[in-house]
């Protein structure tokens, strides 16, 4: 895909596999995919496959930082803060017995 200039969709068609577009948050990706997505050059195909699912290729089209005025980002931040507060309170006040 790098050397011959064929588009990813055309390569997928030749290989008889599907192509799908997705918008994902880093927090929603598994650790391996997140590492690739955060470090991959933009608009460049990168192999993300695993031994269980080989051959997965991703193309990161854009990245963006969270924005305070985005309702989805606000919801995610609130959920994260609540989870952290609950975890801190449990660590401080709960004694787990085996």
Mean pLDDT across the residues is 83
Number of domains: 2
**pLDDT below 50 for ≥5 consecutive residues: which ranges?**
none
- Give the DSSP E fraction (strand runs of 2 or more residues): 5-15%
Give the strand order, joined by hyphens, for the main sheet. 1-2
Distance between the termini: 55 Å
Number of helices: 3
Question: Radius of gyration over alpha carbons?
Answer: 19 Å
Structural class assignment: mainly alpha
Give the overall shape: elongated
Level of helix content? 40-55%
| Elements, N to C (H/E) | HHEEH
Describe this protein's structure:
The chain folds into two domains: 63 residues, no CATH class; 34 residues. Strands 1-2 form a two-stranded antiparallel ribbon. It is mainly alpha-helical.
List the helices and strands and how they pair.
Elements: H1 8-15, H2 31-39, E1 45-47, E2 57-59, H3 71-93
Antiparallel strand pairs: 1-2
Could you give a short description of this structure?
The protein has about 100 residues and is mainly alpha-helical. It has 3 helices and 2 strands.
Q: What descriptors fit this protein?
A:
single chain; 98 residues; 2 strands; mainly alpha; 6% strand
């Amino acid at each position: 895909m790098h050397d011959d200039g064929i588009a990813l969709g055309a390569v997928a068609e030749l290989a008889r596999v599907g192509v799908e577009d997705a918008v994902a948050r880093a927090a929603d990706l598994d650790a391996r995919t997140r590492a690739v997505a955060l470090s991959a050059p933009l608009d460049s195909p990168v192999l993300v496959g695993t031994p269980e699912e080989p051959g997965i290729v991703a193309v990161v089209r854009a990245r963006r930082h969270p924005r305070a005025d985005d309702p989805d980002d606000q919801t995610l931040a609130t959920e994260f803060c609540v989870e952290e507060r609950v975890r801190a309170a449990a660590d401080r006040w709960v004694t787990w017995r085996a």
